[in-house]
Write a structure and sequence with these properties.
Elements lengths: L2 H20 L6 E3 L5 E3 H17 L4 E4 L12 E8 L1 H5 L6 E8 L2 E9 L4 E6 L4 E3 L2 E2 L12 E3 L14 H10 L2 E3 L4 H9 L5 E5 L3 H13 L3 E3 L12 E5 L4 H8 L9
Parallel strand pairs: 3-4, 10-11, 10-12
Antiparallel strand pairs: 1-2, 4-5, 5-6, 6-7, 7-8, 8-9, 12-14, 13-14
Length: 263
């Protein structure tokens, strides 16, 4: 196994042990915004992962959700979400994970996502396939949007911004079989990669929300673009991911609601 992939797996497992240790117990919760939370567990996981990276790969940059991020454009970097699904975690809802990606030469080449409660470890290396607990995974074969199970999420500024995904959600309710909204973009992408979901879209996401899951989806045979169908970029805030078979149908729905498009 590639040394960086093996290392990323060891990091998410270490983070998962911290999450599991404090899950369901009284923890310190702070608000970054009206509905945007951070906990001591987020910070503990981040500190452990960053320590491990600095000890093992001191020349790499690090982007992480709960830190100020300064990085040089041409250096390779680790992209970390120490606890994706913080609101779920704070409420005792067992749908959360640690997400770690590695970007080199402006391409995400490694993605690892771990939910410690379900003991599900998703990982991929570019051009080497995607896996769940060492078993190779692939996207679904659903080819009709009417038969598709989709997932999405909503931005934290939903009450104050018109670009809030509500119109898209309403449109897809009428076009898809069903939609789920469960609070972790990284896990949603992994569920798409292993065929549990058929499509996923969201806006106003950050690189750490999408980076690891994006390479896992692509290595599982899926397709990812922005809302216009253009090449996906983790540093832009739109994502449409699918099994490939329903992708054009999803883009068609999204194109009705251009007020929800980014710049």
């Amino acid at each position: 196994m590639d040394k960086r992939l093996e290392f990323a797996i060891s990091c998410v497992l270490a983070s998962g042990r911290i999450q599991k240790r404090y899950f369901g117990k009284r923890i310190n919760i702070r608000h970054k915004g009206t509905i945007d939370l951070v906990t001591d567990v987020d910070m503990a996981c981040q500190e452990e992962i960053i320590r491990l990276i600095k000890d093992n790969f001191p020349d790499d940059d690090i982007i992480s959700e709960e830190k100020k991020n300064y990085f040089e454009g041409d250096r390779n970097r680790w992209i970390i979400d120490p606890l994706d699904g913080t609101t779920n975690y704070a409420h005792g809802y067992p749908f959360f994970c640690t997400s770690i990606a590695y970007e080199e030469n402006h391409s995400v080449t490694i993605g690892v996502v771990y939910n410690p409660i379900f003991k599900e470890l998703f990982y991929a290396k570019r051009n080497e396939g995607a896996y769940l607990n060492k078993k190779r995974i692939s996207v679904s074969k659903i080819g009709n949007l009417k038969q598709a199970l989709l997932s999405t999420g909503f931005p934290y500024d939903l009450p104050t911004s018109k670009r809030n995904n509500i119109e898209n959600f309403i449109s897809f309710i009428y076009e898809a079989q069903a939609i789920r909204r469960d609070g972790s973009a990284a896990l949603n992408l992994c569920y798409l990669a292993c065929g549990r979901f058929d499509g996923f879209w969201e806006l106003k996401l950050k690189p750490w929300d999408m980076a690891a899951g994006s390479v896992i989806v692509e290595e599982a045979g899926g397709r990812i673009t922005d809302f216009r169908g253009n090449r996906f970029d983790i540093y832009r805030d739109e994502i449409v991911a699918s099994n490939g078979l329903i992708h054009e149908a999803m883009l068609y729905v999204l194109q009705r609601n251009k007020s929800n498009w980014g710049e």
